[in-house]
Design brief:
The protein has helices spanning about 5, 15-35, 40-45, 55-75, 80-105, 105-125, 135-155, 155-165, 170-200, 205-235, 240-265. With about 270 residues, the chain is mainly α. The protein is globular.
């Protein structure tokens, strides 16, 4: 792969798509800065309404890595390490399966799958559905496996982990810190799996198909994401996280319904 193909612009790289996508990323960044999660779920659902999911997801891997690095210094002292150790193993085993699913589905199939998953999780959160009592080993490992597949699929494993973290009654600072370190590992590993599978011919997309759009969109969206995280972090002491989180969940439901409707009427 030469440098020209490495830096080639995606076909949909125009002023309107840049403006609309950057607005989505800015809002999602504010959510991430305030709550510690929800960035990829909002991005992948919002952006997939008018972009190919196969272009969106690899760029989100890069952005999640950058976001976690920007928060690493303040997050490290508050990380819940015993939980992370369990989560890492499930993600190592099931992220490759998620990446393979992501790259093997047609765009509308991927949109429909994402709509069903995000709608189901958002509705469960809105209804307050969660396991009773302290999470045991079976729930920890189940969360680890499910989040691994979701992370490989669309970098959205954090919303599944956050549901269990909430059940564990972790302090908001501990949850945000643990998720930041978790995302750093999972998205770096998912990106490595994607490029490795592409170079070995395991997935249909070539390295050129993946690299050009990933480089372009991750660079284009980085300022909006960092600005959003900064704005959200500044508001973390002024806005009720619970009320804000509920608003995000309602927004996810609406976007998931729109994404499903887009597939049905296409």
């Amino acid at each position: 792969m030469n440098m020209e193909s490495f830096l080639s612009l995606p076909e949909n790289a125009n002023a309107m798509s840049l403006l609309l996508s950057s607005m989505v990323v800015l809002i999602a960044g504010m959510v991430r800065g305030l709550t510690g999660f929800g960035f990829s779920a909002l991005c992948v659902s919002g952006l997939s309404l008018f972009m190919l999911p196969s272009q969106v997801v690899p760029a989100l891997f890069v952005l999640e890595i950058a976001a976690s690095i920007s928060l690493l210094k303040t997050s490290w002292p508050h990380v819940h390490w015993s939980w992370l150790r369990v989560l890492v193993w499930g993600n190592v085993l099931f992220i490759p399966l998620g990446v393979l699913t992501q790259q093997s589905l047609a765009p509308d199939q991927m949109r429909l799958l994402l709509a069903v998953i995000i709608l189901g999780i958002a509705l469960a959160q809105l209804r307050g559905l969660r396991p009773h009592g302290e999470p045991g080993r079976s729930l920890q490992w189940g969360t680890s496996v499910f989040s691994g597949w979701l992370n490989g699929l669309a970098a959205i494993g954090g919303i599944a982990v956050a549901m269990v973290f909430n059940q564990n009654r972790l302090a908001p600072a501990v949850m945000r810190a643990s998720l930041a370190v978790f995302f750093l590992f999972t998205d770096l590993f998912a990106l490595m799996c994607l490029f490795g599978m592409s170079s070995l011919g395991i997935v249909p997309a070539s390295m050129q198909d993946i690299t050009g759009p990933t480089v372009f969109w991750s660079i284009a969206w980085l300022p909006a994401m960092l600005l959003g995280i900064w704005l959200g972090h500044r508001q973390s002491d002024r806005i009720s996280p619970e009320r804000f989180r509920r608003g995000v969940q309602i927004l996810l439901v609406l976007i998931a319904l729109l994404m499903g409707l887009r597939v049905v009427v296409a």
